[in-house]
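Annotated sample (chain length 120).
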Amino acid sequence: QVQLEESGGGLVQPGGSLRLSCAASPIIAEIWDGRWYRQGPGKQRELVASITRGGSTNYVDSVKGRFTISRDDAKRTMYLQMDSLKPEDTAVYYCNAVGSDYLGDQYDSWGQGTQVTVSS
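Output written by the structure step:
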């Protein structure tokens, strides 16, 4: 079973930056497609950014130009760099990855969530 461990959330002022990390374990697992979701207060979960094994990325319109998704395959880790943060970015952020586990079977796993709060 592949597990995802998230980190990097916190409290920042508007205009600030945070970098979220999502590490897959065991390290032998391979990440194919990675995604970051978020769920704000009283809102449904939405897809924020995605990245393929080839490095192709997509973003929801509201974060384009401010957020950057990336991956480090050697570390089996995905990142979400968040710049120019706005109060409306406040949410619990979840990572999701699909790939090949240590048995060679496909997996679909989720991180535990990390809180991002943007406030003055």
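Annotation: The mean pLDDT is 94.
Annotation: The first strand starts at residue 3 and ends at 7.
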